[in-house]
Amino acid sequence: MLQLKNIRKSFGGVHALKGVELCVKDGEIHALLGENGAGKSTLMKIISGAHIADEGEIFFNDSKIKHNSPHVAQQHGISIIYQEFSLVPDLSVTENLFLSRFAKSSWINWERMHKEAASLINSLGFDMDVKSIVRTLTVAQQQIVEIAKALSQNVKLLILDEPSSVLGPKEVKRLFEMLKGLKAKGVSIIYISHHLEELLVLTDKITVLKDGKTIETVETDTVDKDRLVSLMVGRELGQMYPQKNKAIDQQSKVEIKSLSTRFTKEPLSFDIHRGEIVGIGGLVGSGRTEVLESLFGSDRIHANEILFGGRVWSFKRPEQAIRQGWGMLPEDRKKSGGVLDLSIKQNISLANLGKIANSWGFINETKENEIVGRLIKKLRIKVGDATHALSTLSGGNQQKVILGKWLNLDLKVLLIDEPTRGVDVGARSEIYHIIQKLADDGVFVLMVSSDMDELMGLSDRILVFKNGTLQGEVLRPDFSEEAVLRMAIGAK
Amino acid sequence: LPKEDRLNNKKKEGKEVVKGYTSKKDLSAVKVGYSGPSMVAPYYVALEDVVKRSVQRYGMQYYTADGQEDVAKQVAAIEDLLSKGIQVLVLNPLDPKAVVPVVNRAIAEGVVVFIVDSMIDEKAAYTSSVVANNTLNGELLGLWLAETKNEALKIAIISGNQGNPVGREKRLGFVRGLADGQLRQNAKTNFDIVAQGWGGWNNNGGLKAMEDILAAHPYVNVLLAENDAMALGAYKIIKQMGKENQITILGFDGQKEAFDMLKTGKFEATAQNSPKILGETIIELVARHLNGEKVNKLNYTPSVLISKKNVDEYYDAKALF
Amino acid sequence: MKKELLKNNTLIIFLILLVVSSLVSNSFLTGNNLSNLLRQVAPIGLISIGMFLVILTGGIDLSVGSIVATIGVVFALLSYEVYFPVALTISLALGIGIGLLSGYLVAYRKIAPFIATLAMMTIVRGAGFLFSKGAPISVGPHSSAILTLGTGAFLGIPYSAWILMIVFAAVYMVVRYHVFGRKIFAVGSNEEAVRLSGISVESVKFSVYVIAAFFTAIAALMMVGRTGVGTANIGIGLELDAIAAVVIGGASLSGGRGSVLNTLLGVLILGMIGNIMNLLDVTSYLQQLIKGVIIILAVVFQRNQK
Amino acid sequence: MKKELLKNNTLIIFLILLVVSSLVSNSFLTGNNLSNLLRQVAPIGLISIGMFLVILTGGIDLSVGSIVATIGVVFALLSYEVYFPVALTISLALGIGIGLLSGYLVAYRKIAPFIATLAMMTIVRGAGFLFSKGAPISVGPHSSAILTLGTGAFLGIPYSAWILMIVFAAVYMVVRYHVFGRKIFAVGSNEEAVRLSGISVESVKFSVYVIAAFFTAIAALMMVGRTGVGTANIGIGLELDAIAAVVIGGASLSGGRGSVLNTLLGVLILGMIGNIMNLLDVTSYLQQLIKGVIIILAVVFQRNQK
Ligand SMILES: Nc1ncnc2c1ncn2[C@@H]1O[C@H](COP(=O)(O)OP(=O)(O)OP(=O)(O)O)[C@@H](O)[C@H]1O
Ligand SMILES: Nc1ncnc2c1ncn2[C@@H]1O[C@H](COP(=O)(O)OP(=O)(O)OP(=O)(O)O)[C@@H](O)[C@H]1O
Ligand SMILES: [Mg+2]
Ligand SMILES: [Mg+2]
């Protein structure tokens, strides 16, 4: 049904695609796999008409698509859920669902539109007020709107670019059922994810992309995780999660007392021990991000009391926390993690400019280059030139740069929110090792993650949240997906 | 004598100049630079036009750069004229003091400076100047009003812009003439200035100002506008509110459109401030100076009160202004 | 409509001002003054509605003041050459033409709206001065009908206010119930998403500049109608008033949020401030100062909503 | 520095203009004219450098023209009361004070810079008119030293140009090599990330408005030095010239991108355009029109770089 021949695309000097071939059959769920920056999203945008290929041909149902555009693709029945949200935040759910129909000029019958929108959302097995403004929805709800939007018209080919990274397990399950239903109706699906487990259970075929080229297309039944990883990375990955060698120092701890956030019903308390990685689990939207923000002082409204270093703290602003050696890796890399326009070097230096400047505040570039160079090596960040903009790096490497920002200072406590969202397997494993190394070196680590595998692979202890309340904790020996989930949904 | 003529023959300060001078010397090598305050008012446009034609009439070379309504820009404009190597600067200063340093610099470089239309501060060592006698013009209007209207006067003034010395002279002259006239007739004054609006010297501004004045002070029976353009704008509102016959409208300048209004009796009087006379006179003074004649430092154009009676004498259908 | 009003504090500011105004000056609530007020705000109201649409897309139009001047001049010049309807049509068409150019620069040449319309502002005014040679031009006898537009009234309400109301109602309907209106919001809120939905972002942006210029051209004719002259030095700084009105109406300069209704209230608020200060004989220096303070207060008050 | 110059087309535009100017007018390359040109651009240069810093953070400052007017008035008034150094200090301090207020509104009250500084623009100018009662005030005898600043020269280069060069060099150094400069860029590109890195976004934003107002106050004194008077109706529209200079210098109005060096070239470009048109006797109407066209061409040419 869909056939891509020799697709090439470059952005300025970056050759994102260097001759990709892809063939997707009717009623097939076809996975696309590859490292960050392999060109998956770019390829999908070419199919959907958001980008125009420099070279190559697209055949859809045996006819060649010429002059592709979002509009043309839609008319062929190609729908896509982009990796970055492509909703209009100030419009209602209904309007977002029907945005592509706005291409035709006409008056709007609100009543009818709301009704259609509601029934569309309901038909997917979800429920929400379609009149509400998208900006006010949770990330998961927004993703559901994206999916509904993609299905709002007659779909023949559905493309999903990392749809699951912002969904909770329940929603993911629902999504998979839905995709299988579509498949049964003969719809073809292209599915992109960095989660190999998902691909293995969901898809029929997997095409691996590397450096803008097709490596191989395999039948899902014939491969396992290790094989996929080696296809993708070009080498064996070794151990995904680091070993836990060092004993936890039970004496030395950060005590968090009477913490309250926008969503907590009653103040909560917990400890982090030295050398321990404390994970925070829960469903999406359970208010975990706010716990970190409250501790770090970036969510100003909320109170807490931190016993740490022999004193009581309550950070009102991030700079206070940072002065005490705290760091935070925020959830949204692009929005609040990195300064994409600044150079890699400047991003790494951003949190402790004081250290590389003389007493007049002028920056000692030799010193800066030396520190940055050391960190780049230590974190194995793949960079050509540290003076290039952060935006030129792949997602995984960007994440390492943002992590590197904190290693540059005398780090005592590290708060991490979704460390590997959208990061490929290879880079993910490296990030895990870096985090474990930090803990082993005596840094207190508190980590929020929605990726159950990662949460269990890396944490020493998991605190489970539900609707802003701490439901309880699971210790490493008792780790199981079921145990955590059970607590997260409040089942006893 | 009719009243207006009597008024017009009142004592005049400064010297009036006779026109129609022919140069004996060949002036074709002389570069004359003219800088006006701006080119966004017809008055200034007309003045520039007259200056230009007069300069060319004497065969001199003409250059111009205007102040674009900003003293700093006028300073720059004068500097740019100096860069072009002018020998004579004819200046209509946007501000009496702000151009003094650059004028003195010009003089130090050997340029002779003539001032036209607006006065410059005495610190500037200019050669000669021609201006309208604004105070006297104001007085003429004030006197005329005192002598023609005997009721209690509720006066609204529409001024140009804040801090403008010409406007100040005009209205103070007006008040002086009015007080003097009324005192002479009744041994007391009988007027109130009930409002001062600001009209930015243009039609629209006059209209807006009048609108607000009439809303707050509907009983106004005299309007003095510091130029005719604002009076013309204000008239629109006066007419719209049906107060055409209640309000005596007085202006300054003698703009062509105002003459039409005088003829039809919509305006009652204006005081002449003619760009044509100003422009021709100043260039004549330039020519005389270049011929080695001695010229007066301060010269006034004739002050004339123009009303329905004598408007035809001054009306020029082809005038730019 | 009710929801829209209650979402912002604009209505409250408006009501407070209304009450204060009628208390401090007993000339304020006279029919005469109110009809003046309406006549004064009508042109700036039209311009602000156009500006509102531009701002909704995340743009800005600094050229409106110059358009008012130049279209006025052009109409006045034409009034000597051709009959009224022709002069009217050509003037409005020229207004649209200016909008086409601004829209082209912003939408298709991707020049930042601030810069593109800043350049248009000086170009258009320069042209106005060139055409008029700096002089105000009174409207010729063929076109004295325009004076009726400027000064006449129907049912006691000035024609210009009627036009404002009609335009307001039309824009209100389009913004709420027409696909085009929703597209304007969408473009200001997330351009990329709109583009990916197969909608031409360019044509939406382009259109708002054209519409704004068209409304501004109507405003220009209203102003000519009031004064009977076209002059190139009118309307300086008008763009700032229009922007201030839109913002006092609670719209966001980054686009995607705002309401026409509140924009209109913003216009009335600014108009009332000027009017009442004139009635109270506040000198124009102080007027400026007070206006600035009120803008800040209004915006801070807006912010404290919810 | 070389890289910075080559990254944009500003230098090319500048050079083209320079060559064209010297070809079309033989008065252009005279020492006298060049020193005039420098004197003319010095104040706007200072203001543009301040504006550049503000724009780097994604802000804008519309109040600069008003600051020029009001500080000039204040200095002139003070010159009758106190000795020169005191008058100088108070004037500069007042400039800083205005910047503190704008900065406070933008950084701490989170009012959109366009609106906050628009309000400040009318407030400050209103105050200038109030202080001066609208009249130009000549500098008193104590402070005639200011005239030297405005008109004097050292090594053939006007003092004001020296000041501009010093300020430029200082800002250049700070932007490139100082922690503060780096923070300014960072704030302009991603506020949230900067905040989470422990940098106070507020204080960075606050500072740039203060600095811009300070530079503008210096410019105001330069202008008083040239004219010998303080007057409240000077500098109208100056903000637009400064913004245009920054943009012609290739900076992005959304912040995070730009260079001081190119800003300075932008100032020189605009200054040269004005100067050469005066030399060529272009009427001021046409000057406006041409300036607008050149702004558009410059920006389009900028865009076509790389
Ligand atoms: N608009 C763009 N401009 C410049 N370069 C781009 C652009 N979009 C993508 N690239 C570059 O093209 C390459 C491929 O990017 P793409 O987003 O397709 O990767 P991906 O496989 O989807 O990665 P990920 O797994 O992180 O989503 C990367 O080097 C990226 O930096
Ligand atoms: N902008 C917002 N406005 C109102 N409510 C919000 C907003 N963002 C999030 N919420 C609410 O806050 C709560 C916590 O959301 P949040 O996404 O921070 O949780 P989380 O557990 O950190 O999830 P994630 O897995 O996405 O990190 C949810 O109840 C959600 O509905
Ligand atoms: Mg991708
Ligand atoms: Mg979260």
Describe the structure.
The complex is a heterotetramer, with one copy of chain A (492 residues), one copy of chain B (321 residues) and two copies of chain C (306 residues). With 492 residues, chain A is an alpha/beta fold. Helix content of chain A is 34%, strand content 24%. In chain A, strands 6-7-8-3-9-10 form a six-stranded mixed sheet, with helices on both faces. The longest helix of chain A is centred in the middle third of the chain and has 16 residues, at 169-184. In chain B, helix 2 (42-57) packs parallel to helix 10 (275-290) and helix 5 (134-148) packs parallel to helix 6. The longest helix of chain B is centred in the middle third of the chain and has 22 residues, at 165-186. Chain B has eleven helices and twelve strands. Chain C is mostly helical and 306 residues long. Chain C contains 14 helices and four strands. Chain C has helices at 2-7, 10-24, 31-56, 64-78, 84-108, 113-132, 145-151, 159-177, 179-189, 191-196, 201-227, 238-248, 260-279, 284-303; strands at residues 137-138, 153-154, 157-158, 229-230. Chain C is globular. The mean pLDDT of chain C is 89. Classes of the chains: A alpha/beta (492), B alpha/beta (321), C mainly alpha (306). Chain C binds chain D through residues 62, 105, 109-112, 114-116, 118-127, 129-130, 134, 240, 243-244, 247, 252-253, 284-293, 295-296, 299-300, 303, and chain D through 62, 105, 109-112, 114-116, 118-127, 129-130, 134, 240, 243-244, 247, 252-253, 284-293, 295-296, 299-300, 303. The structure holds adenosine-5'-triphosphate (2 copies) and magnesium ion (2 copies). One magnesium ion (MG) binds at residues 288-289, 331 of chain A. Chain A: Keywords: ATP-binding, Cell membrane, Membrane, Nucleotide-binding, Repeat, Sugar transport, Translocase, Transport. Chain A: One of its GO terms (cellular component) is plasma membrane. Chain A: This is ABC transporter related.
